[in-house]
Every structure is written in structure tokens, then in C-alpha cells.
Amino acid sequence: MEEIIQADAWNAALLTLPQTHILQSWLWGELKGSRSWTPVRFIWRTDDRIVAAAQVLVLRRGRLRLGYIPKGPLLDWTDGALAETILTQLATYAQQRGFLFLKIDPDVRADTDVGRRTGALLSQLGWRASFEQIQFRNTMVLDLQPPLDQLMAQMKPKWRYNTHLAVRKGVMVREATLDDLPLLYAMYAETAARDSFVIREEAYYLDVWQRFMQAGVAWSLIAEFNDIPLAMAIAFHFGMCAWYMYGASRDVGRGFMPNHLLQWHIIRRARDAGCTVYDLWGAPETLDIADPLWGLYCFKQGFGATFVPHLGAYDYAPRPWLYCLYALLRPRAVAMAHHYHWVRVRHT
């Protein structure tokens, strides 16, 4: 377990592993480091070969210390012995640092033998399924390896039609600039108010988007008609994967199908950049029409994306009684914060 403190060394280490994730990148850690979290980065070696990595985000709340490894740790989860070693050492780290809990969020499919073995191993080692998911548990994934014409062909007929319709209507897609950041947020806030989901303050998103755009790992696209903005989409990319992180559309021009054209542009850009996987980021907890994310699921499925269920977050709590108390009080605090922020968004 070796701490890494150089950006180039860290990102290079991640790219040697079988799976990597943008939320484990140095840039994401630095973003969180500017907002109360402290990133601590570890790698594991076997015979001078990097076999695992974990970016731990540490948060102090008074006398409490919390740890979170978003979309990690990163390792070959088919290697049960390696997984046991990493999980055991992370649990020891949480104990030694006096964490209330350490949360991990491994990108491990739940519907596979590896997923079932990993879930059993986590329980055996004292990890418990978390009461709180920070990221979406499940997602939608599109394989970008087929040729573009095949990717278009595997879209649902209505999705192909809508994509072509946007072009025929004269919708244009352009790259957003840093000067467009307030516009991106305005569209995002409009979408949040219309679809009733909670978002953060404007400064947070402007910071995220600016950092990733300046680093060259974000495609920030705006769909327009006659210079009138209709919709936007932002995707991040790292290694062989791209992630659809943010999207928004205005009420005006929705019949021009700008969102379909935006997704097609991202698919083409990701493939041209050498990405083999496009993660459309977020899917229902269960495939049920009553799920709040059902509409997004149908939209993403229309492009040929496949539903991928994950294990979700697990917590290791050195002091179980204090963890249980926190788990009891935390949802109430979150509900109050969401209510306060929702009132602000509704009146902005």
C-alpha cells in the first residue's frame, strides 16, 4: 500500500488497471480537494506491477472523519485473493485513522458470478451494504467498438428518426466555451425545476465544468437552432471510457429533438477518441416503470445502451454503534438540506 502524490504517476497507474474511472482520476480528487475533502491516493504492487489503486476522499465533520472511494477501489475483481487483501487493508486503514466509516463504490456487476462472490466477500470481511448511495448504483453502457453505421443501425427506429429529424430541422451542435458556462448552468437549472430534481449551487458546476474543459477531458456541447440554445450535454472521458455526466434541455424547441443529436455527437467523438465504452451514467434501481429514472432509462436504451446493475456502495464502520446512529440521523439531515435548496432553485 503505497501513497502516490504526483498527478502524472497517479493517472498513469490507473490506466494500467483493467478498469478505471473518471471519479478516481487525479483531476476529480483535486476538485474535491477544493471543497472540504482531502484526497489520499494509494497503489498496490506485486512484483513491481501495479495491481490496484484507490483514491480515498477524506472529510472532517467536527470530530468525525469520513472516507469515500468513489467508483473504487480499482483492481481485477476476478482475483479473489487480491480483492481480499485490498479490502482488508482498507478496513485496517479506516480503523487506524479513526473513520466513522469508509465507503467504497466498486464498479462490479451484481448479476455475475464475480459480483456474487465479491458481495459475499465484503460481508465476510465486515463490510455492509451502505444505507446511502452517493453515485447511481446502476448504469447504461454502450459498446463503441462496432462501426458507426452499425451503432446507428442498432438504435431504435424512433431514435434514428429523431436524430435525422434534428439535422433536417436545422439544429446545429457546437462546442461550448468557458464563456458559455453560465448558459450551461441556466439550462441545467431550468431542467431541474421542470423535472423536479435537486442540483447544487451554480459555483460548483461552473468549477467542475471549467476544470474538466480546460484539462481537455470534457466534451461540452450545445445544440442550437438559429443561434437559440435548445439543449446541452457534457461528457467526460478518461482512458478507454466516456461518461455522460450532465445534460439539460429547455422547454423551447424540444420538438426539434436536440438531445438525440447531442448524444449522437458524443458517441462519434468518443469513438474517434479511441473510447470503447460509453457509460450513459445512471439507471433505475429496478427496471420498473414506476421508478423515477424510468424515462431516462428508456431514452438511453433507445441508443442501444444496455442496463448494467452494480453492487453499489459498501461501508466499513470500525464503531458500528456510532455508524448506526449516523445512519439513522443522516437521511433527516439530507431531506432538510434538499428541501432548503429546492426552495431556492424554484425561486431562482
Features:
single chain; 348 residues; alpha+beta; 8-stranded mixed beta sheet; 7-stranded mixed beta sheet; 15 strands; globular; disordered C terminus
Model description:
With 348 residues, the protein is an alpha+beta fold. Helix content is 41%, strand content 24%. The chain has helices at 7-14, 26-33, 80-96, 113-124, 148-153, 157-169, 181-195, 202-214, 258-272, 294-301, 320-346; strands at 2-3, 37-46, 49-61, 64-69, 74-75, 101-104, 128-129, 139-143, 172-175, 218-225, 228-238, 241-249, 277-279, 306-308, 314-316. Strands 1, 2, 3, 4, 5, 6, 7 and 15 form an eight-stranded mixed beta sheet that branches. A hairpin with a 2-residue loop joins strand 2 and strand 3 (49-61). The radius of gyration is 21 Å and the shape is globular.
Radius of gyration: 21 Å
The pLDDT mean sits at: 92
Instruction: Tell me, briefly, the overall form.
Output: globular
What share of residues is helical?
40-55%
H and E string = EHHEEEEHEHEEHHEHHEEEHEHEEH
* Sheet having the most strands: 8 strands, mixed
Number of strands: 15
How is this fold's topology laid out?
Elements: E1 2-3, H1 7-14, H2 26-33, E2 37-46, E3 49-61, E4 64-69, E5 74-75, H3 80-96, E6 101-104, H4 113-124, E7 128-129, E8 139-143, H5 148-153, H6 157-169, E9 172-175, H7 181-195, H8 202-214, E10 218-225, E11 228-238, E12 241-249, H9 258-272, E13 277-279, H10 294-301, E14 306-308, E15 314-316, H11 320-346
Helix pairs in contact: 3-4, 6-9
Task: Give a brief description.
The protein is an alpha+beta fold.
